[in-house]
Amino acid sequence: MSIDIDQAAHVAKLARIRVEKDDLPALAEEFNTILGFIEQLQEVDVEGVEPMTSVTPQRLRRREDVVTDGGQQDKVLSNAPDAREGFFAVPKVVE
């Protein structure tokens, strides 16, 4: 696949990037270079390769999925300008 100057201008317009007409050939060439790299990646055989989360094997830390209140209500409300009955108090905005 090859990108010409008109297609490069169209991509720039879609991305809302202003590109001067003199810079369009260089942009099209850069797009073509990127597409070349993508074509090289498509040639790699990944059949049977397991997905990875990191380049070093490691297990993800897991915790039990339970709903809690966080146990920090006092800390959270300590910075509130006005707190009543365990909640933030705010001015009434609807009559």
Automatic annotation (TrEMBL):
Q: What does this protein do?
A: Allows the formation of correctly charged Asn-tRNA(Asn) or Gln-tRNA(Gln) through the transamidation of misacylated Asp-tRNA(Asn) or Glu-tRNA(Gln) in organisms which lack either or both of asparaginyl-tRNA or glutaminyl-tRNA synthetases. The reaction takes place in the presence of glutamine and ATP through an activated phospho-Asp-tRNA(Asn) or phospho-Glu-tRNA(Gln).
Organism whose genome encodes this protein: Palleronia marisminoris
Subunit record text: Heterotrimer of A, B and C subunits.
Q: Which domain of life is it from?
A: Bacteria
Q: Which reaction does it catalyse?
A: L-aspartyl-tRNA(Asn) + L-glutamine + ATP + H2O = L-asparaginyl-tRNA(Asn) + L-glutamate + ADP + phosphate + 2 H(+); L-glutamyl-tRNA(Gln) + L-glutamine + ATP + H2O = L-glutaminyl-tRNA(Gln) + L-glutamate + ADP + phosphate + H(+)
Q: Name the HAMAP family on file.
A: GatC
Q: What class of enzyme is it?
A: ligase
Q: Which gene encodes it?
A: gatC
Q: Which GO terms describe its biological process?
A: glutaminyl-tRNAGln biosynthesis via transamidation; regulation of translational fidelity; translation
> What UniProt keywords apply to this chain's record, in alphabetical order?
ATP-binding, Ligase, Nucleotide-binding, Protein biosynthesis, Transferase
EC assignment: the record states 6.3.5.-
What Pfam families does UniProt report for this protein, alphabetically? GatC (PF02686)
Q: What is this protein called?
A: Aspartyl/glutamyl-tRNA(Asn/Gln) amidotransferase subunit C
Q: Which family does it belong to?
A: Belongs to the GatC family.
UniProt GO MF annotations? asparaginyl-tRNA synthase (glutamine-hydrolyzing) activity; ATP binding; glutaminyl-tRNA synthase (glutamine-hydrolyzing) activity; transferase activity
**The UniProt record lists the keyword Ligase:** yes
